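Box S2. Input/output pair 1.
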Amino acid sequence: MRERRFGRLGWMVGDVGYGMWGIAGGEGGWTGADGEGGDAALDEAVRLGCDFFDTAWIYGRGESERMLGKLVRRHPERRLRIATKPPPKDREWPSTRDSKLSEVYPPDYLWECLHRSLDGLGTPSVDLFQFHVWEDAWAHDAAWQDTVTEMKERGLIKGVGISVNRWEPWNVLQTLRTGLIDAVQVIYNIFDQAPEDELFPACRELDVAVIARVPFDEGTLTGTLTRETRWPEGDWRNTYFVPENLVPSVERAERLARIVPEGMTMPELALRFILQNPDVTTVIPGMRKPAHVRANIAVSDAEPLDEELMARLREHRWDRRPTAWSQ
């Protein structure tokens, strides 16, 4: 596992981390979660050098955090980095221009969320406490600034992050300049290349770590979806891959498949595209099976893609705007 410096916090972390939404299951999540199989996948990741784990209380309503806490206790010899997120109090994903900080992240609620996460994890602190939704209009509000500053001073959190709303990489730029944000988590993949325009240069200038999420576009970039793909009732993907999204997503994946090099899978290509960018600190694919863990982590040691292929991949950029179904 190759390592990269985690921005101004100075940690060295593996460039392939672990996204823990799908592994938890539960209401509003991904169906097919298997606790025992999930634990095996997590252990395999640690064995192969993975040391950055991204979770949130909302993932399984605390189940993902409990799984991560147990993982940490099973591997006391390893320094595993814990990143978690408090859900918005109004339970609205994403926030909108009308959202008020006082209704989404009031100080007492942030403290409540932190202590609930610490209890679930069974740890005295978390490495990264990330806002799960964000509006850049909140940048200079002392309510959140004073709260996270006190959390840091009390040693309950080591760093502060923001998980940027889907397809809005610009919606954090003012906040970064407050000097209080240590990491940004953003959707970045072959389709979603917009973070390169403004966000990545700002992170580079300010020494803010970049966590690339949704590397497979919620599954499109695995090359396994079809126009007829459906999931069990209650699976979040049914609400995201509505026809107006599923059909064009599959069509774009089919075009991309024509240029996947022989001997390479589309997921491998997707991850290698992301890791080609030095502004990315770590990428966090979701992984529920040990086989997926082995395949994804192996990409860390791959050689860079050639420039001709990278140029062709850049032609697959897809600039999208948030919709009612994009969440």
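Box S3. Input/output pair 2.
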Amino acid sequence: MGPAANDEDLIGLARSLRTLMELAGRTITANAAANELALRVTGHLGCPMSEVVPVTEQFPIWDHVNVQRGIDAYLAAQGSTGTWFGVSGAGRRPDEGLLSLITMADHTPSVRFGAASYGTAPIGPDENTEVVELGQIASAAPDGTPVIIALHTVKQFGPPRCALEVLAADAAAATAARDEIGRLIRAHNVFRGQVLSFGASEHHGNELVSFLPRPAVSAQEVILPDGLLETIEQHIVGIGEWSAGLLGSGQHLKRGLLLHGPPGTGKTHTVRYLTGRLSSTTVILLTGTSIRYIDTAAALARLLQPSMVVLEDVDLVGMDRDFSDGSNPLLFSLLEAMDGVGGDADVTFVLTTNRADILEVALADRPGRIDLAIEVPRPDAACRERLLRLYARDLTVDADLAQVAAETEGVTASLIKELIRRIVLASLRAGDSPPVLRASYFADVLAEMNSEHHALTRSLLGAGTAVNPGPAQGRFVRNQRSRPGG
């Protein structure tokens, strides 16, 4: 007979048994949760996991909100009243499909049934909505066959994206549900009628879509030579207003507008006016490096027509020579994208450039992409006076603005806007409250801006040569008189 167990042995045994029981309890709980995850799916679909068929579609991450809206519309149409549920626990890869995660739960206790996870996504310049980041919900295919609709985002292992996954015991049912959700995604697209810009994040080079407020610019605020704005409006707005008649007569709707001229003359301002004028049109703005997303933008424009795609500073594309001296992949992509939209689409391409000569050969070699080219010139004396009055509105003016306009030949709208700002600042420094646009301030500020050390400033504001105030510096002072409001 062996020696009797001492108290320490009994205590050690008790601790071991307690640890074993706790481990068994956790395992049973985890397995139950894992089984609940699978049972939720198989119980609704009426088949074992081995017979579940997944049908998946991937979307760029910026389309996540539209996928959510499509799913929500589908669930409402089907009368689905269930709640979203998810997968929780460590050990799951974020790029795994939800069917893989459910299957993994059978042999990975840490992966188990849990609550769906949520995030937010913008639906306008100042409004967000809730979206499912990882979850699934029971529903039915259009023919009534049970399906599980799943949505999850993947922000690792490549460009961020979201995946729509439909699980069913029958592939045809899953496909039908996926296709109907796709139709509703297009029908409820939150981008329709919005002003959008494309950009890139610092990770993976993926494209991002941002909402911009629609500018409110009146026709009176667009200072162009007589008849020029009307010509632009007839081409952009008029074709859209007569779209049915044009299509019925076998004519195309797609149009291209090129606004060219020196920097600072009002090309971008004109685009802002058109964006506000076309209040229900989808506007997609591409500028700088974001022009490389022209293919995506053109496809989105066709989907969301009537639409307008704006490509600013296209001369930068025309000078792109990244691949070889004889090729221009970005410009080629732009022209191909304009071709690919199709003549029946109510889509406008608006290009702005400071260097039309760079693009002229390429555009002439492929006629039809641009059907109206408008030069936006430096303002003449009459336009300069209108600009002075525009930027001086609501301010007290004690100067002859017609004389200022006559003596500032060669300046741009940008320079005139900056001129007024500097004169207001000079007035404030002189102790005027409220500020007054005095003739002497015009003379002093023009002299300063015309000095040699401001040559680069003038160039950056679009005035390539010196402003020539000439004898006006004296006349401004002699002709001082009160002209409230300019």
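Caption for Box S3: The chain has three domains: 27-187, 209-375, 381-484. The first strand starts at residue 53 and ends at 60.
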